[in-house]
Amino acid sequence: MTSTPSATRAADLGTLVVVPWSGEAPDGGDMPYLLAYSLGDAADGPEASTAAIEHLLTENKLPVGGDLVDGMAKPSLAAGLLVESGAAVLTLGGLTAQCVPPAEWLAAAEARGYAYLVVTTRPWPEAAPGTYIGPEALAAFAGAEETLTAAAHVILPARRLRS
User: Fold this and answer.
1) Closest CA to 158 of 34, 28, 26
2) Backbone torsions φ then ψ of 148, nearest 5 degrees
3) pTM for this predicted structure
């Protein structure tokens, strides 16, 4: 008997959103953060989105609610970050998402050489693309215990194209 390996389909995730921001880190410097989440709008509902993101993370060896994964020490990590021409391009497994970070995020990513990625399985339907997300709303969602414990945390090298 054979079986087909399970895979995560983009449609199962719903709309995947990536939000960049920077903030003060414990060392006093600016830290570039990326928050990736689903709107929970998969055809089978928010529970399906949550399960699909959890599967995607597990499939790519990114523990949900586990230890911080240091992508600087794992060149074979199935997640990557390209920062070029004022844009940040995140890859995770077979998915790609792009965002245009603010200047302070770009400066922090260049200074540090990496960004802190949080991929949460917790849907955030109110924060759809094109919707203004105020600093208070972002801080409340990104800093909520239920967001952080339902997430993979990854340090990703901020790679650039070579000329």
Assistant:
1) 34
2) -70, -40
3) 0.90
